[in-house]
């Protein structure tokens, strides 16, 4: 066995035959690539739009990756819808099922299979080529779209209307796929944080908006072990949010402050007073997943906060960073 492709559905498998929408099997997609793929095995893990996946589904994908390596795979490709691809890739990165055993490459498409110029076939071809040849173990889980390789902590989907929808801003991609199918190294990669063993139950995510009422945050924090609050700029939140955030931290919740824009902040004086952990460059969605992982892998809030901070993204203020 060489490469295992785990199929979860998505736009890449969607086909309109003129009368109705069909779902094309990933095995058919691989067969359509031509010769040279007889060593590629396919595992059907789920089906449907990735916007329907929950965190348990994402953990299950990571388990499929681990199983593929246990059965002798030297590389794994995950075919996934693009809406939540970066999130399932990040969960897989956190759980680290590959553990240095081989590359894990997520891919999909922005255009359906029946589009006159589908992007899926080339993305799948590039992902398989990368799974066969990539040996840069420090890169962790990769996302391969439009011939560009991103590492899971950095990557984000920035457009719903372009085939060039993913980037790693403000970082550089970790590599590119050449027309020959060979992959070349690019930018740097994040250091590995403390190990993760499991994800805890749901952690609410509240996105602040002008005029938000304190009761919105208070309700979200009730009965929760953790809370992610998405604010503005360098982790600034409205005055109305200060009280409930401080109270949640004092009650022992893991409170994470994220921002709708990039900021690498993990600590500052305001958070020392208020109580909370900065998202450290992660988006609010990824910060929520990391908070669940921190709570699921540690015995108390302070240990969870330490684990969370260990996964902060490296960055130098005022410079475009390559990691």
UniProtKB/TrEMBL annotation:
Domain called L-asparaginase N-terminal: residue spans: 3-177
Any Pfam family matching the protein: Asparaginase
The protein, known as: Unannotated protein
Domain called Asparaginase/glutaminase C-terminal: residue spans: 203-308
Signal peptide positions on this chain: none
PROSITE patterns: ASN_GLN_ASE_2, ASN_GLN_ASE_3
InterPro entries per record: Asp/glu_Ase-like_sf, Asparaginase/glutaminase-like, Asparaginase/glutaminase_AS2, Asparaginase_C, L-asparaginase_C, L-asparaginase_N, L-asparaginase_N_sf
């Amino acid at each position: 066995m060489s490469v295992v492709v785990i199929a979860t559905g998505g736009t890449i498998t969607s086909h309109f035959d003129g009368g109705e929408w069909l779902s094309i099997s990933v095995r058919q997609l691989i067969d359509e690539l031509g010769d040279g793929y007889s060593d590629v095995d396919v595992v059907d893990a789920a089906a449907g739009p990735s916007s329907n996946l929950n965190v348990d589904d994402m953990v299950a994908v990571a388990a499929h990756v681990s199983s593929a390596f246990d059965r002798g795979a030297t590389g794994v490709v995950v075919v996934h819808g693009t809406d939540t691809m970066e999130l399932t890739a990040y969960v897989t990165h956190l759980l680290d099922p590959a553990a240095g055993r081989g590359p894990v490459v997520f891919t999909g498409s922005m255009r359906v299979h029946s589009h006159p110029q589908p992007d899926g076939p080339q993305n799948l071809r590039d992902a398989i080529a990368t799974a066969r040849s990539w040996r840069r173990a420090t890169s962790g889980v990769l996302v391969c779209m439009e011939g560009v390789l991103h590492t899971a902590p950095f990557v984000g989907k920035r457009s719903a209307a372009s085939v060039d929808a993913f980037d790693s801003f403000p970082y550089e991609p970790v590599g590119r796929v050449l027309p020959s199918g060979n992959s070349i190294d690019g930018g740097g990669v994040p250091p590995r944080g403390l190990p993760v063993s499991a994800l805890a139950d749901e952690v609410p995510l509240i996105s602040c908006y002008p005029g938000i009422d304190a009761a919105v945050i208070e309700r979200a924090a009730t009965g929760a072990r953790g809370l992610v609050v998405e604010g503005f700029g360098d982790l600034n939140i409205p005055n109305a949010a200060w009280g409930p955030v401080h109270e949640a931290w004092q009650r022992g919740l893991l409170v994470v402050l994220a921002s709708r824009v990039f900021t690498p902040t993990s600590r500052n004086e305001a958070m020392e007073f208020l109580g909370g952990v900065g998202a450290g460059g992660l988006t609010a969605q990824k910060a929520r997943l990391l908070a669940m992982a921190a709570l699921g892998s540690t015995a108390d809030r302070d240990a969870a906060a330490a684990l969370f901070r260990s996964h902060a993204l490296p960055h130098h203020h005022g410079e475009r960073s390559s990691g």
